[in-house]
Amino acid sequence: MTRLRMAVIGVGHLGQHHARILAGLPDVELVGVADANPAQAREVAARHETTAFDHFEPLLGRVDAVSVVTPTIFHHQVAAAFLKHGVPVLVEKPICRTVAEATDLIELAEKAGVPIQVGHIERFNPAFEELARRPIRPKFIEAERHGPFTGRSVDIGAVLDLMIHDLDLLLALVGGRVRTVSAVGAAVFGGHEDMVNARLEFETGCVAHVTASRISPRPKRRLRVWAPEGYAGIDFVSRKLSLVQPGEEVRRYGLRVDKMDAAARGRLKDEVFGRHLQVLHLDGDRKGDQLTAELRHFVDCVRSGRRPRVTGEDGRDALELAERILSSVREHQWEGHPDGPVGAGEFPRPSGWLFQPPARSEAA
Ligand SMILES: NC(=O)c1ccc[n+]([C@@H]2O[C@H](COP(=O)([O-])OP(=O)(O)OC[C@H]3O[C@@H](n4cnc5c(N)ncnc54)[C@H](O)[C@@H]3O)[C@@H](O)[C@H]2O)c1
Q1: Atom 7, ligand 1: which residue's CA is nearest?
Q2: What confidence tens digit (pLDDT) does each residue in 196-255 have?
Q3: How far apart are CA 86 and CA 113, in angstroms?
Q4: Residue 58 alpha carbon to ligand 1 centre in Å
Q5: Between 69 and 275, whose confidence is greater?
Q6: Residue 82 Cβ < 6 Å to ligand 1
Q7: Atom of ligand 1 nearest to the CA of 156
Q8: Per-residue confidence at 362, pLDDT binned at 50, 70, 90?
Q9: More confident call, 194 vs 1
Q10: Which of 65, 81, 90 is CA-nearest to residue 14?
């Protein structure tokens, strides 16, 4: 089998891992890496014995597929150039900065007859894969994604940086359109929003509460789903899935507490989980990481012509929902009326101290 000639454009924090993994895939030849920072391109290229480029253009005629891992503001420019040359593209999330740009990429891919895949990596999390295989009709969802402030991805805010992962998962899990969006978000450090909460109501009747923060001391990424079929909880960090479902008796008759004697009622709290509600904990497959699974899948789609698990349309749908959330965030009135501060950027200034601030040392 001839090896697929691939390149990575943008080899910063994440792109260098794309390069490392692609360099190690037996059916891929990493023909080069490009980065606007020539020293970074040289360092990563040297690590993987490939060629460094300080611009993507020389790679246009030399590759069969490409991975675009530049900051979001450059996704459209770089991906469009390759698609115009008929080169399949894996573009990191969010697909682009605007829905119009995303639509343009989808049309270019269609015209060229090549796949475009978007890097919504949580779709490859084994815990989510396990859940997506099961017949669940979500009616209420809570999604939380918290991370420490890294100073990276400051060209976008917490919605496009973090929440977009959960928006894609919700759309994949619930299906159908989102009827109403109501959101609040605050730019704690100035610039874009650093924390956001959104309430979404789907046409299916499902309600979702989604929170993202990029100023939390500890990472936390979890999804909790309540459905007629039961409850599902995913911890994306440990890749664990917990499932709870009503047992046969509860499904038929409900829990008839009124028919229980005092002793049975006394045991209830120890017997609810296990006897009346059945519980299954699944540990995600710890072998193999999600990025490798995502890149292998892309390579497979390029070779076989199969439709990627996360298409350009999926990326655009998540972005469209993100834009609706951002527009709701922009309209939020912090004091309940339009004459006061409005939107993430006008988060009211502190009116006092919650506790005595520590004394500043001379050196600080
Ligand atoms: N899927 C995920 O979980 C995940 C995680 C982190 C980042 N991302 C996405 O990956 C992308 C990159 O994020 P990062 O954290 O690696 O950023 P980064 O700033 O660390 O790296 C980006 C690199 O791209 C280079 N670059 C900038 N413009 C370029 C251009 N026009 N051509 C070539 N190179 C260019 C920069 O010099 C830099 O080295 C972003 O879109 C981000 O949203 C996705």
Answers
A1: 14
A2: 999 999 999 999 999 999 999 999 999 999 999 999 999 999 999 999 999 988 898 888
A3: 8
A4: 20
A5: 69
A6: no
A7: 43
A8: low
A9: 194
A10: 90
How many residues are present in the chain? Answer: 364
The domain 4-121+290-322 having CATH identifier 3.40.50.720: the answer here is yes
Query: Average pLDDT, whole number, for the chain?
Result: 94
Q: Where are the domains of the chain?
A: 4-121+290-322, 123-283
Say if ligand 1 is within 6 A of residue 157 CB.
no
Higher-confidence residue of 64 and 288: namely 64
The residue whose two tokens read 């072998």 is 287
% pLDDT > 90, the chain: 81
- First-to-last CA distance in the chain? 60
* 62, 32 Cβ separation under 8 angstroms: yes
Coil, helix or strand at residue 150 = coil
Query: Do 4-121+290-322 and 123-283 have matching folds?
Result: no
Model confidence pLDDT, tens digit, residues 303-326: 999 999 999 999 999 999 999 999
173 near 132, Cβ under 8 Å?
yes
The helix-helix angle for 75-84 and 99-112 (nearest 10°) equals 10
Nearest to 241 by CA among 121, 119, 120, 134: 134
Ligand 1 centre and the CA of 12: distance in Å?
A: 6
Q: Which residue from 293, 302, 309, 175 is spatially nearest to 239, judged by alpha carbons? A: 293
Strands, sheet with 28-34, edge to edge from the N-terminal-most edge strand: 51-53, 28-34, 4-9, 65-68, 89-92, 116-119
Write out pLDDT tens, residues 180-204.
999 999 998 878 899 999 999 999 9
Task: Tell how far the Cα of 161 is from the centroid of ligand 1, in angstroms.
Answer: 11
Q: What's the rounded mean pLDDT across residues 47-53?
A: 97
Q: Is 353 helix (H, G, I), strand (E, B) or coil?
A: coil
| CB half-sphere exposure, 186, CA atoms < 13 A | 10
**Domain 123-283 = CATH 3.30.360.10:** yes
Residue 69 Cβ < 6 Å to ligand 1: yes
